[in-house]
Amino acid sequence: MLGMTSKLVGAGLMLRYSNARASTVQILFGQLVSGAGTGMISIIAQTAVQAVTPRQDVASVTTLYEVAGAIGGAVGNAISGIVWTALLLSRLRANLPATAQSAAVEIQNSFLVASSYLPGSSERIAIDKSYTEVMHVLLIVALAVLSVPFIAMFGMENIRLKEETTEQVRKK
């Protein structure tokens, strides 16, 4: 529960502090909370899967768990890449001043080009706003996806490894 809650709270903090006014500490804090939750989920979920699996199937189930995680990560990366690619250029075109419109594709394709504009310039403000708007969409999608396992965890059996042997868990 703590891991999933940390991950959800961390994503919420990242959404709250993903703007040009946020301090580095605020941005990092959300990422640290989310990362800590991810670390807790990984170990605890794998242990839970192994605890309810017959001994002869532990290797196969562990492999299946890891493969499912890798596939989920790949799907998540693909979705975020699609959202980023689909939205960033349109947000840049909507926010950039007329004098910088011709550079929108170049700005989208290179963070170095985007960061080369002087902080405080109208172009840089528009770039920052565009990045923030797309990041908000990504974080809202992440929160929506994270809400599914968060709700599902309330229906899961609590396996107390210290109090029960593996054989007792299997008999249930």
TrEMBL record:
It is a multi-pass membrane protein. One of its GO terms (cellular component) is plasma membrane. InterPro entries: MFS_trans_sf. One of its GO terms (molecular function) is transmembrane transporter activity. Its main location: membrane. Keywords: Membrane, Transmembrane, Transmembrane helix. It is found in: Membrane. The chain crosses the membrane at residues 67-89, 134-156. Gene3D superfamilies: MFS general substrate transporter like domains. The keyword Transferase does not apply. Coiled coil: none annotated. This is Major facilitator superfamily (MFS) profile domain-containing protein. It comes from Trichoderma guizhouense. The lineage of its organism: Eukaryota, Fungi, Dikarya, Ascomycota, Pezizomycotina.
